[in-house]
Amino acid sequence: MANESVIGVTDPETKSEVKSEVSSEVKSEVSPQASNDVYEPIHSKSPVFYDLYERKAELQHQTHYCPGCGHGVAHKLIAEALQELGLQDKTIFVSPVGCSVFAYYYFDVGNVQVAHGRAPASATAIKRSCPGRIVISYQGDGDLAAIGTAEIVHAANRGEKITVFFVNNAIYGMTGGQMAPTTMVGQKSTTSPWGRRPSNEGFPLHMAELLATLEAPAYIERVALSDNKNIMKARRAIRKALEIQRDGAGFSFVEILSPCPTIWGKDPVEARRWVLDKMIPTFPLNVFRDRRPEIPAGNEPPQRPVADVLGITPKAEARDVSKPKHAHHFKDVKIKIAGFGGQGVLLLGQLLIEMGMREGLEVSWLPSYGPEMRSGSAHCHVCLSKERIGSPLISHPDVLVAMNEYSLRKFAHEVASGGVILYNGASLPADFSAPDVQVVSIPASEIADKLGSTKATNIVMMGALLEETECLAPGTALSVLEDKVKKLNLLEIDRKALTAGRLFIDEQAHIGAVSQPDGFA
Amino acid sequence: MAGQARGKVAIDVEECKGCGLCVESCPPKCLELAPELNSYGVHPARYTGQVCTGCGICFYCCPEPGAITVYRIKAKAKPVAPVPGGEHAAAV
Question: A14 to chain B: nearest residue by CA?
Answer without folding.
Answer: B36
